[in-house]
């Protein structure tokens, strides 16, 4: 066993900054510098905004091994945690996603029931109705239209609002604040203020559900508060996590996935000409693999010395596991840069891996299956209304996607 490999000194100017600039010719590909690191070796040091130098774990198998390892922590308050942005006063805790077991598991268990495959499948007709009605509106409205505004954002927002018991009429408020929270270059004060506004809003809603419970997840959390199992603040924080995670990621997958399909017309044709649910669900998995919406890496800190890929990561070292290169590792996915809707991509790490693996993945999958299985069949001539070079990509966000997607038909 070799000791920690540190090919470049931590203070060396050679340690590249992370996240790396996405300057690839193809806007769906990870930054070329990341790919180079993957070819060079399983581990590399990178430099963060605060000067710290965590390890970048470049390969799929090692990323999965570490994400499933109980010797790594997701607790953002631990020294060495490679935070993606300053933790503003008041903290940027977004509930159990940044906690370790047993508290992580205790809180997660309180909200798992509505996200089981069975419960999610029961919602499929509702989601189909939402998608159909939004497409009706798009078709009845003027051309071109911004697909983000008219379709990609409303679909998951309407669904998660219904599940949580949040009034959809407040969508401008919560979408605006969650935009600030996930913007990489938002100041700590702005991010903290946005989190505070959302937490206050969810706290009011939990209070209202205590008085007037409904058939929704916030009401179930309010019951836990009343039973003394959960503080009202923790309930509100869980609401913030579910509200943000429930719409941002899926909305970006809808818009970026549509753009990727429009840029790969042979693949779009495969999808448009089929109503085979198996092909559609396979296409969703491949798009999740290919597009890596949560592109800035799973972040963890080592609690003990860990041997991986012939090296030792020391206790207290930060770890970054970017799924964009994990999902493009040729060892796991042959010809990884080819979008191939017929490949078996189910083992991708787009939803993470281990105990923090995405809670909402059955819901996200079902929403995307309905969207990808409906949109291009109902609008078969859908096309970009501007040149690809005019499309603004979210290079500055912790969630990747496009700010707007002008389309016509
Ligand atoms: C395409 C859509 C989505 C993608 C790509 C995605 C991706 C991810 C990833 C990568 C993680 C792991 C984070 C980590 O390990 O640090 C995660 C966690 C999580 N996601 Fe998603 N997600 C999506 C949709 C959703 C939806 C619809 C919800 C519904 C509320 C949701 C709720 C959550 C929650 C609560 C966690 C934290 C799980 C835990 O810490 O135990 N996600 N997601």
TrEMBL record:
Where is this gene product found? Cytoplasm
Q: Which Pfam families does the record cross-reference, listed alphabetically?
A: p450
SUPFAM superfamilies associated with the record: Cytochrome P450
CDD domains this protein is in? CYP105-like
**Where does it mainly reside?**
cytoplasm
Belongs to which family?
Belongs to the cytochrome P450 family.
Q: What is this protein called?
A: Cytochrome P450
> Origin organism of this chain?
Saccharopolyspora spinosa
């Amino acid at each position: 066993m070799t000791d920690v490999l540190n090919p470049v000194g931590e203070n060396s100017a050679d340690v590249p900054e992370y996240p790396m600039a996405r300057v690839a010719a193809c806007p769906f590909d990870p930054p070329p510098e990341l790919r180079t690191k993957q070819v060079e070796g399983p581990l590399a040091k990178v430099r963060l905004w605060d000067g710290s130098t965590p390890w970048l774990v470049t390969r799929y198998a090692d990323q999965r091994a570490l994400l499933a390892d109980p010797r790594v922590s997701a607790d953002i308050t631990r020294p060495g945690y490679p935070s993606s942005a300053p933790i503003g006063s008041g903290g940027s805790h977004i509930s159990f996603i940044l906690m370790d077991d047993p508290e992580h598991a205790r809180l997660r268990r309180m909200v798992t029931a509505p996200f089981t495959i069975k419960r999610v499948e029961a919602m499929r007709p509702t989601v189909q109705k939402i998608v159909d009605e939004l497409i009706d509106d798009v078709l009845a409205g003027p051309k071109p239209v911004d697909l983000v505004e008219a379709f990609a954002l409303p679909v998951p927002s309407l669904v998660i609002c219904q599940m949580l018991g949040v009034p959809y009429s407040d969508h401008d408020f919560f979408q605006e604040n969650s935009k600030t929270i996930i913007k990489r270059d938002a100041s700590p004060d702005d991010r903290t203020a946005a989190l505070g506004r959302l937490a206050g809003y969810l706290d009011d809603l939990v209070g209202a559900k205590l008085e007037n419970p409904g058939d929704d997840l916030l009401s179930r959390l309010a019951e836990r508060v009343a039973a003394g199992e959960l503080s009202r603040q923790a309930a509100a924080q869980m609401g913030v996590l579910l509200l943000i995670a429930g719409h941002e990621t899926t909305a970006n997958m809808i818009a970026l996935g549509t753009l990727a399909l429009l840029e790969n017309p042979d693949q779009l044709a495969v999808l448009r000409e089929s109503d085979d649910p198996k092909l559609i669900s396979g296409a969703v998995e491949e798009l999740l693999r290919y597009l890596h919406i949560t592109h800035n890496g799973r972040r963890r800190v080592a609690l003990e010395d860990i041997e991986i890929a012939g090296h030792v990561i020391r206790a207290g070292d930060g770890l970054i596991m970017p799924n964009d290169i994990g999902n493009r590792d040729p060892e796991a996915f042959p010809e990884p840069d080819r979008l191939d809707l017929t490949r078996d991509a189910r083992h991708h790490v787009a939803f993470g891996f281990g105990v923090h693996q995405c809670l909402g993945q059955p819901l996200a999958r079902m929403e995307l299956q309905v969207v990808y299985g409906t949109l291009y069949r109902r609008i078969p001539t859908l096309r970009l209304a501007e040149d690809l070079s005019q499309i603004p990509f979210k290079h500055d966000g912790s969630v990747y996607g496009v700010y707007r997607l002008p389309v016509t038909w």
